[in-house]
């Protein structure tokens, strides 16, 4: 697991280095290109979604204000800039109020992106579609009002109110019986998903688009209301006129005959649930070139005014030298110097305010260090720093590392060194040490000791069974391994002597 962690960390570090150092042009880096593309993708998703929800007109008004602010900045129009800055101070509050419903739907839309390619069709067979159209035709002929919702790829549950569970297979007789005027649930809507009728008698949100509704009734208002808030396909049968209408994408259309319903229903299914499902990302890449161009242009403009024109700031940091992957048998005794002055650059003061400078450090790969004195070149790749901070200068460019390699001796017994004796009438029963042995680093050419002892423990001061700690005494140039502790636990058991 640790090896995977280090490899992941190295990979991320390499990506950061490339994006922060590879220059595309004067003062433009690979990271800037990625920055623009990512923001453009987000803007594209937002524009694509707003187009679906018919909110582009309101967004266009905001876009005009942003464009006006950009012009004011270019031509130094002070009064206009100050006025628009005051507006932008409450911009996000205004945005949240204006697009409250759209924002919630947008985040639900984003959450569903990864799963859309695996969703099933709401109506899966031609026979089911035929039954549905035939039932609608019969209801229209009898002038029995009806409201049928075919779910799309968005979750519509929070827009539904009331109703009764059914979970029944769709049939002409079932639909006709539900919408019979004598039925208790005939005034509500039925929810259809796949080949099944899930609920009936459901209440839908009403639309306030009176221009489209004109003389239409409550059923049409409910159908239009749900289509404004979701991607559901809603079929309406007028009780007064016996006409068939469909509501989709915030528009309501009256059809001329059942055959036309079959055509638009199949078009809906093909659009929302193609026979060979593709991800929403793949679908976006193939369509809507105008929106893609607009998103890329907006992203590039925002980058130009907020990033490219920002002053490049340089700062000096005194960074400590650290090591990783140093072998167990290698001990680094000296690093000269142990701190290096690194000059870094970023666009604007904000580049340095977004991270904790105490986390900056130089990390040297210890697996390459040999016995003796090593001269190591400090490169930008060794400097752990956030993206997109770049390294301008390193002083000094080299450090001298003195290292010594040892042989590892394992399982060397630990003996407890004691002085004195317990008071009269008491004697030592046992002396136990934990751990019982230890691993040592032995200089080349030197023999490992038969045992290693603790510092002296004075038995004169011990009156009862006691557990204490004692430090180890390492002879000569012998060292403990990195994982070994220099302190051990000693338990001395005292018992009373017989008189």
Word description of this protein:
The protein is 36% helix and 29% strand. It has 14 helices and 26 strands. Residues 1-15, 17-26 and 115-124 have low confidence and may be disordered. It is elongated, with a radius of gyration of 38 Å. It has 499 residues and is an alpha+beta fold. The protein has a seven-stranded mixed beta sheet, sandwiched between helices. Strands 15-13-10-12-16 form a five-stranded mixed beta sheet. A four-stranded mixed beta sheet has the order 22-18-21-25, with no helix packed on it.
Write the layout of secondary structure elements.
Elements: H1 2-21, E1 23-25, E2 28-29, H2 30-52, H3 56-74, H4 78-89, H5 91-98, H6 100-111, H7 126-142, E3 146-150, E4 164-169, H8 172-178, E5 189-193, E6 196-202, H9 210-213, H10 218-229, E7 233-237, E8 244-248, E9 251-255, H11 258-272, H12 280-286, H13 289-308, E10 312-324, E11 330-336, E12 339-347, H14 350-353, E13 361-365, E14 372-377, E15 383-384, E16 390-395, E17 398-405, E18 407-415, E19 418-419, E20 426-434, E21 437-442, E22 452-453, E23 457-458, E24 466-471, E25 479-480, E26 487-496
Parallel strand pairs: 3-5, 10-13, 18-22, 19-23
Antiparallel strand pairs: 1-2, 3-7, 4-6, 5-6, 7-8, 8-9, 10-12, 11-17, 12-16, 13-15, 14-17, 18-21, 20-26, 21-25, 24-26
Helix pairs in contact: 1-2, 2-6, 2-13, 3-4, 7-8, 7-11
């Amino acid at each position: 697991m640790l090896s995977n962690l280090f490899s992941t960390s190295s990979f991320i570090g390499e990506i950061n280095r490339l994006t922060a150092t590879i220059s595309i042009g004067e003062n433009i880096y690979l990271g800037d290109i990625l920055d623009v593309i990512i923001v453009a993708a987000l803007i594209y998703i937002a524009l694509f979604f707003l187009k679906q929800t018919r909110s582009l007109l309101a967004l266009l008004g905001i876009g005009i204000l942003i464009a006006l602010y950009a012009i004011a900045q270019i031509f130094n129009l002070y009064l206009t800039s100050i006025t628009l800055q005051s507006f932008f101070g409450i911009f996000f509050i205004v945005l949240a109020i204006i697009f409250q419903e759209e924002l919630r739907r947008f985040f639900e839309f984003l959450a569903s992106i990864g799963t859309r390619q695996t969703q099933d069709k709401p109506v899966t067979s031609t026979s089911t579609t035929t039954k549905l159209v035939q039932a609608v035709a019969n209801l229209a002929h009898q002038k029995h009002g009806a409201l049928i919702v075919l779910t799309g790829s968005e979750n519509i549950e929070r827009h539904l109110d009331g109703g009764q569970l059914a979970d029944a297979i769709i049939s002409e007789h079932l639909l006709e019986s539900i919408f019979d005027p004598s039925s208790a649930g005939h005034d509500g809507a039925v929810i259809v998903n796949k080949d099944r009728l899930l609920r009936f008698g459901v209440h839908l949100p009403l639309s306030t688009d009176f221009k489209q509704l004109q003389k239409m009734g409550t059923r049409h208002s409910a159908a239009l209301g749900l289509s404004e808030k979701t991607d559901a396909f809603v079929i309406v049968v007028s009780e007064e006129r016996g006409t068939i209408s469909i509501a989709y994408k915030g528009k309501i259309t009256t059809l001329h005959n059942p055959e036309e319903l079959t055509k638009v229903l199949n078009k809906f299914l093909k659009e929302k649930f193609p026979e060979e499902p593709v991800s929403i990302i793949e679908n976006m890449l193939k369509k809507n070139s105008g929106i893609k161009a607009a998103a890329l242009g907006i992203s590039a403009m925002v980058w130009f005014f907020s990033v490219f024109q920002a002053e490049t700031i340089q700062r000096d940091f005194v960074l400590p030298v650290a090591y990783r992957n140093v072998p167990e048998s290698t001990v680094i005794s000296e690093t000269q110097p142990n701190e290096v002055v690194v000059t870094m650059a970023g666009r604007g003061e904000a580049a340095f305010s977004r991270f904790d400078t105490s986390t900056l450090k130089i990390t040297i790969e210890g697996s390459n260090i040999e016995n003796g004195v090593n001269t190591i070149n400090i490169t930008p790749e060794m400097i752990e720093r956030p993206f997109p901070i770049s390294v301008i200068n390193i002083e000094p460019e080299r450090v001298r590392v003195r290292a010594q390699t040892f042989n590892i001796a394992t399982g060397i017994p630990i003996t407890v060194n004691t002085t004195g004796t317990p008071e009269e009438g008491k004697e030592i029963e046992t002396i136990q040490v934990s751990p019982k042995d230890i691993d040592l680093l032995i200089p080349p050419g030197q023999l490992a000791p038969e045992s290693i002892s603790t510092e002296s423990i004075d038995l004169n001061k011990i009156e009862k069974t006691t557990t204490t700690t004692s430090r180890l005494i390492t002879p000569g140039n012998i060292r403990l391994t990195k994982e070994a502790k220099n302190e051990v636990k000693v338990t001395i058991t005292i018992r009373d002597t017989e008189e």
